[in-house]
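Incident review: delayed structure delivery

Summary: a single-chain prediction request sat in the queue longer than the usual turnaround. Root cause was a stuck worker, restarted by the on-call engineer. No data loss occurred. The affected request and its eventual output are reproduced below so the record is complete for anyone auditing the incident later.

Affected input:
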Amino acid sequence: MKKWIALMLLMLLLAACGEEDSSAGTGEMPQEVEVEFNTEETADPGEEVLLSATVTQGSEAVEDADEVVFEVWQSGARENSEMLEGTHTQGGVYEHAWTAGEEGLYFIQAHTTARRMHVMPKMELTVGNPDPETIVPDDSEDADAMEKMGH
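Output delivered after worker restart:
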């Protein structure tokens, strides 16, 4: 009987130690990954545009992003978007050269996965001097872009 009680106490002690270990790492939440565009907001038709974004976490440049993919589409035509993989240069900057098409409003979204976080900031790029009546507001779903990326 004493052995049985000793065995039960030992099991309870081990279980308590296991509970302590399971709470390890529940401290501070990691800082959010942020992406800031460096790309100009205007271009001429046929001009090469450097799609560029700086990825940071807190004050640290993210040099090891899993991926930075620039999605580019003309207003009203997200279904025809291009997915362009960014290349890391330095200081958390990821870039891809792209040639602007015809006049119009374009949207650029930087699908960024880094440090187990995914962020998708978006910017507008005006190419040439488009007729305002040809511009369609972007009401597309970001989930559609995720499918296009294969995620």
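Verification: The chain is about 20% helix and 40% strand.
Action items: add queue-age alerting; document worker restart procedure.
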